Amino acid sequence: MNISRNEQRALHVLALGGRILHERGEGRKITSVTCITREGMFLADFNLGVFNQLRRKRLIESRCGSPYRISKRGRISVRAQLDNQGA
């Protein structure tokens, strides 16, 4: 599966315990998203386009309206890096 650099960054943050907060506009459509690391920092290159790509590929999921987190398929797809070994 082809995963872009921005998608990889987001998946790494989520694999280390981060989450994606979303806000809905009128109706059910998601209008804004924010990716937050485990330490509370914001991921700068994360936008609605990257979010939609991750969701379309089923690499992230939300259950019962909670923040989006990495799915099992996302954990398998993320490439290993040094900062992921200790978590």
Describe the overall structure.
- This protein is of the alpha+beta class and 87 residues long.
- It has one domain (5-77).
- It has 3 helices and 4 strands.
- It has helices spanning 5-15, 48-56, 72-77; strands at residues 19-24, 30-36, 60-61, 69-70.
- The strands form 2 sheets. A two-stranded antiparallel ribbon has the order 1-2. It has a two-stranded antiparallel ribbon with strand order 3-4.
- Strand 3 (60-61) and strand 4 form a beta hairpin.
- The protein is globular, with a radius of gyration of 12 Å.
- The protein starts with a helix and ends in a 10-residue tail after the last helix.
- The model has no long low-confidence stretch (mean pLDDT 88).
Task: Based on Cα principal axes, name the global outline.
Answer: globular
Helix content: 25-40%
Indicate the low-confidence ranges by residue numbers.
Answer: none
Calculate Rg over CA atoms: 12 Å
**Topology order in helix (H) and strand (E) letters:** HEEHEEH
The domain count comes to 1
Q: End-to-end span in angstroms?
A: 24 Å
Output mean pLDDT.
88
Residues in β-strands, percent = 15-25%
Number of strands: 4
Helical stretch tally: 3
Give the oligomer, counting copies of the same chain as homo and different chains as hetero.
single chain
Q: What strand order characterises the main sheet?
A: 1-2
Alpha-beta classification: alpha+beta
Task: Describe the secondary-structure layout.
Layout: H1 5-15, E1 19-24, E2 30-36, H2 48-56, E3 60-61, E4 69-70, H3 72-77
Antiparallel strand pairs: 1-2, 3-4
InterPro entries: YjhX_toxin
Organism: Sphingosinicella microcystinivorans
Protein name: UPF0386 protein DFR51_0331
